[in-house]
Amino acid sequence: MSEHVLEVMGLRKNFGTAAALDDVSFDVAPGEIVGVIGPSGCGKSTLLRCINFLETPDDGFVRVAGDFLGRTRTAGGVVHRQSEIEITRQRHRVGFVFQQLNLWPHLDVLGNVAKAQITVLRRPRHVAERRARELLAQLGIADKANARPDALSGGQRQRVAIARALALDPAILLFDEPTSALDPEITGEVASLLRALARTGTAMLVVTHDIGFAGRVADRLLFFEAGRIVEEGSTRAVLDTPRDPRLARFLMAMSAGSTSASLPNKPKE
After folding, report:
1. What is the pLDDT of residue 135?
2. Per residue, what are the HEC states of the chain?
3. 146 lies in which domain range?
4. What is the pTM of this model?
5. Does 146 map to a domain?
6. Does residue 159 lie within any of the structural domains?
7. What is the pLDDT of residues 80-113, one digit of tens each?
8. Is residue 126 part of a domain?
9. How many domains would you assign to the chain?
């Protein structure tokens, strides 16, 4: 059994002649939050989509909790692409919180969190709703179970999306720009929430343009440039003492362009 909940090995993805991902490899341990930063168009969101095979990589492998997802390799080195049924069965182990959240507007909060359990895991409705209520209570929005998404604040909608992802009992959560369009106070709430989830053992991979947010939540950072991991290391080392000049230029540009790019110390746990 692997000690990592996520292993990405040699992942490649081309769009025409442009390399979106170029031999990307890293892993994520239980309870670890790994942040992914880099300029627009560097491959961050493509990485998330390739990890759970919403986008099919051209090469490389993904393992979740020790099991291959999408493409497998036998002991003899033969590569086999899993069927769509196999991929769908495995995909629920990778929770995905999209940038636009994609909550169902016609369902209340309870229905949003229960529906995927009923559809994907075939849980009986009463079991799915019980699990949904547990997660809503854990995330501090139990009183919003009967509300529709359009009646919630941005931070509350984010919590519903996280609860929906957690309801499928994933091995890891992927976040695509979780603080997009949130004000600083709510961004702080989301940061605290993710750190609390990490303390329960939840592993997370977080793509973000917000360097301040990355500094608060991530244990480790990957800096992407042109589809490659150019630099990686502990959050403080990457942000405070960048080795690669491309990372240094990126951090300087982000600091100059946004007050949210300040680099606060991670809150004490």
Report:
1. 94
2. CCCCCEEEEEEEEEECCEEEEEEEEEEECCCCEEEEECCCCCCHHHHHHHHCCCCCCCEEEEEECCEECCEEECCCCCEEECCHHHHHHHHCCEEEECCCCCCCCCCCHHHHHHHHHHHHCCCCHHHHHHHHHHHHHHCCCHHHCCCCHHHCCHHHHHHHHHHHHHCCCCCEEEEECCCCCCCHHHHHHHHHHHHHHHHCCCEEEEECCCHHHHHHHCCEEEEEECCEEEEEEEHHHHHHCCCCHHHHHHHHHHHHHCHHHCCCCCCCC
3. 105-164
4. 0.89
5. yes
6. yes
7. 899 988 898 888 899 998 878 889 999 999 999 9
8. yes
9. 1
